[in-house]
Amino acid sequence: MSDPSIAPRIRFVLVGTQHPGNMGAAARAMKTMGLARLVLVAPEKPLDEDAFRRSAGAEDVLGDAPVVATLADAVADCTLVLGCTARARRVQLEELLPTVAAARVAAKAGEGAEVAIVFGRERTGLTNEELQLCHAAVHIPSDPAFSSLNLAAAVQVLAYEVRMRLLGDAATPVVEPGLREQPASHEQMESFFGQLGETLDEIEFHKGRAPESAMRKLRRLFLRSEPSEQEVRLLRGILADAQRMARLAHGDKK
Ligand code: SAH
Question: Which residue in 32, 172, 1, 4 sits closest to 12, CA to CA?
Fold first, then answer.
């Protein structure tokens, strides 16, 4: 993580949660993404065995979460408050995609400010009054016909986006998966194309057509796929077998 002091300035606030298990699952979702500041606003029921079971190793995040009476109490010292809502364009608030929200959260926290991402009740979400306390709304662009994610799933999406932001360049893989092998050199590619040309002749692929046109297309195809040395060896093995078969066939004819 670029700056370890940023994550502790980002709090996830759950308002009026109805199922204790969801608070546990939310704590787990946060901890997997390196986020530990959970605040609970007037949960309907206190934390119970189910909540701690669902936290599955994030008992510290759950156990450390302060319980406060109102959303205003939970965000009193915050300079940026974003409210997550399952229904798009419900309020006269700017509506952000999770990626954009995470960028703003990370930028603000990076400046030293306290920031909050707020989640509503399972059944009814956030009230209009609660959304009025927010600087902007965040909507995960779900299917409008079935737009409501489970509370902890929504927490996971936001926590992931925040983590991706905080990781920054470190989140970009240096080596693309599947390209760990040494790419074939220009010389290896040219030898392969040479053998491919010979093979096409030997199997009488062109049948009177100009060989250049097919070769141009094949070169483009193989160069675009940037094969590794091993992949070129495999292709050349196949060509060698095709050549051997062609020679056998010619021999048979004679
Ligand atoms: N029936 C409620 C859904 C609540 S789901 C409603 O219509 O508002 C519980 C919480 O999860 C929501 O208050 C919100 O904070 C979050 N959430 C669920 N789906 C979401 C989505 N598509 N985008 C953003 N937040 C979402």
Answer: 32
* Most informative mutation of 44, 85, 96, 157 for ligand 1 (most atoms within 8 A of CB): 85
pLDDT, residue 29, reads 98
Would you tell me the crossing angle of helices 211-224 and 186-202 to the nearest 10 degrees?
140
The full set of domain ranges for the chain reads 7-171, 186-253
Both tokens of residue 134?
A: 């927010």
Give tens-digit pLDDT for 228-252: 999 999 999 999 999 999 999 988 6
pTM: 0.75
Q: Which atom of ligand 1 is nearest to the CA of 83?
A: 15
186-253 shares the fold of 7-171: no
Does residue 47 sit in helix, strand or coil? coil
Q: How far is the CA of 130 from the centre of ligand 1 (A)?
A: 14
Class of the domain covering 186-253: mainly alpha
Would you identify the CATH topology of the domain 7-171? Alpha/beta knot (3.40.1280)
- Ligand 1 midpoint to CA 24 (Å): 17
How far does residue 123's CA lie from ligand 1's centre (Å)? 9
Cβ count near 5 (within 10 Å): 10
